[in-house]
Design a protein that fits this description.
Layout: H1 11-17, H2 21-34, H3 36-89
């Protein structure tokens, strides 16, 4: 049998109650776990965790799109610049 030491706990109470402190703790933990409030909070936490994961995925996609767009601008900017100069000097401006 596993023994727990708790300040103010008289071990003779275990004999009187017919339950050890460990068993009492397990019984309380099970009762708390089964409570509607705990179940509701766990469901809310799970929902929040899923929402955070979804937002992190969306953020990763947005970051990737921004990186790709930035790369495209860097790649195509010289061509746009050359085209603008060409059009300007050939009097074909918009």
């Amino acid at each position: 049998m596993v023994s727990m030491e708790v300040e103010g706990w008289d071990s003779s109470l275990e004999e009187e109650l017919g339950i050890s402190l460990v068993e009492l703790k397990q019984w309380i933990d099970e009762a708390v776990e089964k409570s509607e409030m705990v179940q509701k909070k766990k469901a809310e936490l799970q929902e929040l965790q899923e929402w955070v994961e979804k937002k992190e995925q969306e953020n990763a996609v947005a970051e990737s799109l921004l990186k790709d767009a930035n790369q495209q601008v860097r790649t195509n900017l010289p061509f746009v610049f050359v085209l603008y100069i060409y059009l300007y000097f050939t009097n074909l401006h918009w």
